[in-house]
């Protein structure tokens, strides 16, 4: 099942539900990618990312990438692609004074490359609510372009909030005086975070994570904790526990099966950690939902 909606201003929304699919390497406008069950893998240069339902992926204009779905259950993807003009206008509205916006209302502003950092972000809160509501509207009705563009405007607003929380605030936590150094360190830490999120169910080690970020192990350990408030291992455990919560809510897998899926070796260790982090056992958590 496939759906494509191209608006008059060239914003585009597409959705597809498939078990197996390969989308060859191509270039698109700035896009936000989501998946509502299962996962989709993306190749962006040498980066190999796996997108799950609790995250969304931002891909910059001009980036070349390919993607693939290979699943025994149907995987539902939704992608939003923003036209350069719409994106430039949004960027200007957040960086110019009211007088500048009134004097030059239709000027195309060049977008800073750091404004839309290409990475995986958490898919929750207002961002998730907005996209889920848009998805529901598109599935149940045929809303006009005006309404859809309002949703897309709010999608960018919510992305900007997530960006500030995940990028700006994390950058401020880094203990470096030079701004360009902070930016470069955060870009590399973002690669480390992506590697953890994409390979959370595998037996990964510090050397793997550090290599993915082009940082030494000790430099990674020091700066990752500064930026994210957790060590790489603690971050990995958090990702695994979050994945287990999703599976407990949305699947019929047994707890032992979930333990294996998320990369834990021992059910008792998983149950102990889950209870310590959530103040409830996995079994009771599932009953509550």
UniProtKB/TrEMBL annotation:
Keywords: DNA-binding, Transcription, Transcription regulation
Upper taxonomic lineage: Bacteria, Pseudomonadati, Bacteroidota, Sphingobacteriia, Sphingobacteriales
One Pfam family named in its UniProt record: HTH_18
Keyword Coiled coil: no
Protein source organism: Daejeonella rubra
Official protein name in the record: AraC-type DNA-binding protein
Molecular functions per Gene Ontology: DNA-binding transcription factor activity; sequence-specific DNA binding
Residue ranges constituting the HTH araC/xylS-type domain according to the UniProt record: 190-288
Cited SMART domains: HTH_ARAC
InterPro entries, sorted: Homeodomain-like_sf (IPR009057), HTH_AraC (IPR018060)
